[in-house]
Amino acid sequence: MCAEACRVVLLSPLDIHFSQTRIRPDFQDGRSLEDTQANIQVTDLKAVQEFEDLSESELPGELLLVAPFPSIEVTKWRCKFRDENGAPRLDPDTGLDLYSKEESWFSFDNRRLCCLQRAAVAKWPLQARCEVVEVPHNLARTRELRKFDTRTFGKTVLVGSRDMPDPACWSWRAAVGQPEEPPPDTGVAMQPGVRWRGMRAGAPGSGRGGAEGGPGHQLSGRRLSMKNREERRRWSRKNHEDEEDESSPIKVIWRNVLLFLMVYFGLRLGVSLFRRHQDPPIGAVNATFSNASVPVLLVLKSPTHLSQLERLEVSGADEEVKAWET
Fold it and tell me: Which residues are CB-contacts of 67 (< 8 A; sequence separation ≥ 6)?
């Protein structure tokens, strides 16, 4: 997903929000979240001077989490208000969608984020950081509708498969004994694309150092190298990092229509071939009549002989004709 504009920065996993309501308890290769978390190593953050620390915590970072998977992708955006059923909440006056007033960090890689948060909680109250890939807004928009469906503003996430009746709820605040942060009471009514306008590099609150290629951009982080991009692609293909991706209703309808048409025409073709196989060829019928003794009744169609019937018996080379007049 990332192009040249992506950059690597430092964030606390506890500052990053989940973009989905539910995640699976394991990766596609069979590794569980617990096993993956156990492979996350911890090192001294002072040894890392290459990246800018954009964490919202007032306390300085002390530890760096080194994960066995590629760095997670994050972006800053306004979260859409949703009810308990997942439907967007609308402004009663304008009928537009409601969004949070403040922007927050959200992750596209929710299972990996859960592993990082658990590793950070294990070192609490020490402040941990991790390397993340900041995705620009113009690239993040392409995955907005397909990926983001959180109903808790990304502060908690359900861990379990879809058929699990009682999935576990992960909350790092509950894990460290802190009270849950209440959701915002009021939001901002706007069209879906408006929240991305004006968030150019270097704008206040955008979390970016400067324009692409400018001094701020060069000093605040490192562009994603070709090696890291290849590593991310290999990991994503192996683990199907789209997690709980949901196709849009239009795609589902078109897929069902195409499936119906394929089944329908397949059945029609099968019936046609079956009937053709069951019906004997015309040549075979003629051969049967010519090589066997077959009684045939002929109705003379001449107007003067409508009352006459002839019975013909054909047997090999001998032919005898008997006619009766009625």
Answer: 39, 40, 112, 115, 116, 119, 130
